[in-house]
Write a structure and sequence with these properties.
With 264 residues, this protein is of the alpha/beta class. The protein has a single domain, classed as 3-Layer(aba) Sandwich (Rossmann fold), CATH 3.40.50.300. 48% of the residues are buried. The N terminus is likely disordered. It is 43% helix and 17% strand. Helix 1 packs across helix 11 and helix 7 packs parallel to helix 8.
Length: 264
């Protein structure tokens, strides 16, 4: 049985995490969404930000069709008219197929970060789902929150891309610490391989510390929930991956300092 999130009972500390992966397809959106649901299940008022700005998919994973997006909020639409509530969490949605939103410049990036930061008094937890890649927009948002989570699969390419992501975040955002989440694990030895390979590269070339968090097993229930547009923790709360994500939520609440500001 997963450990209870006793630390998240009222008064709830404020946690702000960005979830990135360096590349697409590693499962970061699934982990980000269900991490938010796990915290919300423990009475934390939780804000989820889809910062995969031009190719948003959180709305699909949640089975909703928002009428407005971050673009509207940046254009002056009151934030209350943009936020959407579903599955116990509040979503600040992005857009799918929006070139303009995917290429916003530094000023708009800063305004977005300020907008999210302005909501800190209304929520106990923030989860930012960062778009794939290591471009300017992704790097700015991945390095903007108090804590950065990097999702890594056992494949060599995923490990290489995770290192590339850490390298850019270190050089461009002065990131000095990141949490590593091994995902789609089928054998326990794969976690050790990720820790060893990535740790060796980081220790040799980067001025950054990494902390390994509980791993998430490969689980067919993840794909089934995604096809139905329902978060895994709602669709299959007792599935192995769902139990592991609750353990992950507990580990973050227990390990990550809660007295940091939401945004760096």
């Amino acid at each position: 049985m997963s450990a209870p999130l006793a630390i998240l009972r009222r008064p709830v500390p404020t946690y702000a995490v960005s979830v990135t992966g360096g590349k697409g397809g590693v499962g970061k959106s699934t982990i980000a969404l269900n991490l938010a649901v796990a915290w919300a299940d423990q009475s934390a008022r939780t804000l989820m930000v889809d910062s995969d700005l031009g190719t948003a998919d959180l709305n699909l994973l949640m089975g909703i069709a928002p009428q407005r997006s971050i673009l509207d909020a940046l254009g002056g639409v009151p934030i209350e008219q943009v936020l959407v509530e579903a599955h116990g969490i509040t979503l600040l949605p992005a857009l799918n197929g929006s070139y303009g939103l995917s290429t916003i410049g530094p000023n708009a990036q800063r305004r977005l970060i300020e907008l999210v930061g302005s909501l800190s008094s209304r929520f106990d937890a923030l989860v930012v789902d960062v778009g794939a890649g290591i471009g300017a927009v992704q790097t700015a948002l991945a390095g903007a929150t108090a804590h950065t989570l990097l999702v890594v699969n056992p494949e060599a390419l995923s490990i290489a891309n995770a290192y590339a992501c850490l390298k850019v975040l270190s050089s461009e955002r002065a990131l000095r610490h990141a949490y590593i989440v091994p995902n789609r694990i089928t054998l326990g030895v794969q976690v050790d391989e990720i820790a060893g390979s990535l740790g060796a590269l980081v220790d040799r070339f980067l001025d950054i510390d990494i902390t390994m968090l509980p791993s998430i097993p490969f689980d067919p229930a993840v794909g089934m929930a995604a096809e139905l547009g329902v978060p895994l923790l709602v669709h299959s709360p007792d599935a192995p991956a769902a139990r592991a994500i609750r353990d992950l939520a507990y580990a973050i609440a227990r390990t990550a300092p809660a007295d940091l500001p939401w945004m760096r």
